[in-house]
Amino acid sequence: MHSRDSRRLVLQRLASLIAVPLFAPACSRSPEGDGRSSAPSPQGSAPAAPAQGAQGAPAQGAPAAKVKLALNWVPEPEFGGFYAARETGAFAKEGLEVEILGGGAGVPVVQMVAGGQVDFGLSGADEVLTARARGADVLPLFAVFQTSPQAIMTHESRGAKGIADILASGGTLAIEPGLPYAAYLKKKYGFNKVKVVPYDGGVARFVADKDFSQQCFITAEPIAAKRKGSDPAAFLVASEGFNPYVVVVITRAALWKENPERVRAFIRATREGWRTYLHDPKRANEVMAPLNTAMDAETFVAAAEAQRPLIETPETQEKGLGVMTRERWETLAKQLVDLGVLEKVPPIDDLLVAAR
């Protein structure tokens, strides 16, 4: 079972934005692709748009536009819709040839997008707001997770009914305290009754200690702990009122201005890919599996099923997958100001100019 070291890195990504200069060069070891490479575009420039036919569709016989998508972690179900879009031809139908770059520790996706090294990337909503406050040329386009999978996991035997009970009942809590969701919980409930220790990315300590609780993604560590014979009970941070969009597709504002139809085409194909993956994840999982050997087939299936209600909601059924609202972004921005992460709420309408 995937021990989900990814969750440790997911929660360090925002910290890396603060630690790494915004427009620093990408790390020397580039994120690995999946063997389907395309010729790189000149850094900072947008590839030429393909010829367009009726209603914005690519003209028959026009060469596909080669674009790059940078994941913020290794291939796994939270990215399944992007692989489905490629494997089923949704990207190709829109005149796009998409190279998907796997992420990893220290890969600065926001900086890569802002600097033009890739055309699209994946980030979290809080990271987007923080990056823009520091001058990053990025725009959000599509939010995969409508409900954040971030959660706190404890043992069912402790009888907790929610996060408040976990924090009031003592024991040990493994968490990254400097990140926004943790700061939010600390401000709301306090951490004075628990012993806070660093989160190590796995579940071994959880399985061994009945008084141990930890941060998790509800689609990951609880599955791992249960498969090791433990009794996890996980509670979403979103239920406490802090619910940033997760797996947000971003592009640089310059690309949107230069080639809005390419951006729209990418989002149309992405939406179709996610519809496909939610209906039947098997094909995309089979493509991702050899790119992420830390997850077995059973885990791919379990994670894909666990994440479905976080992606497909009553709102997406009404307005479409990936929907983002001004109210959600404004609420998050105000929360980040309250936590001292942002100095002021940015102009939300400017933020969502490419998502309308």
Q: Main beta sheet: strand number and arrangement? A: 5 strands, mixed
Helix/sheet category: alpha/beta
Helix content: 25-40%
What shape does the CA trace take?
A: globular
Rounded Rg: 20 Å
Strand content: 15-25%
Order of helices and strands: HHEHHEHEHEEHEHEHEHEEHHHHHHH
What's the overall average pLDDT, rounded? 86
Number of helices, where a helix is a run of at least 4 consecutive DSSP H or I residues: 17
Query: Distance between termini?
Result: 40 Å
Overview of the molecule:
By secondary structure, this protein is of the alpha/beta class. The chain has helices spanning 5-10, 13-19, 80-87, 90-93, 109-114, 125-133, 163-168, 180-189, 204-208, 221-227, 253-258, 260-279, 282-288, 297-311, 314-319, 326-338, 348-351; strands spanning 65-70, 96-101, 120-123, 138-145, 150-155, 172-174, 195-197, 212-217, 232-236, 246-252. Strands 2-1-3-10-4 form a 5-stranded mixed sheet, sandwiched between helices. Helix 3 crosses helix 12 (260-279) and helix 3 (80-87) crosses helix 13.
List the helices and strands and how they pair.
Blueprint: H1 5-10, H2 13-19, E1 65-70, H3 80-87, H4 90-93, E2 96-101, H5 109-114, E3 120-123, H6 125-133, E4 138-145, E5 150-155, H7 163-168, E6 172-174, H8 180-189, E7 195-197, H9 204-208, E8 212-217, H10 221-227, E9 232-236, E10 246-252, H11 253-258, H12 260-279, H13 282-288, H14 297-311, H15 314-319, H16 326-338, H17 348-351
Parallel strand pairs: 1-2, 1-3, 6-7, 6-8
Antiparallel strand pairs: 3-10, 4-10, 5-8, 5-9
Helix pairs in contact: 3-12, 3-13
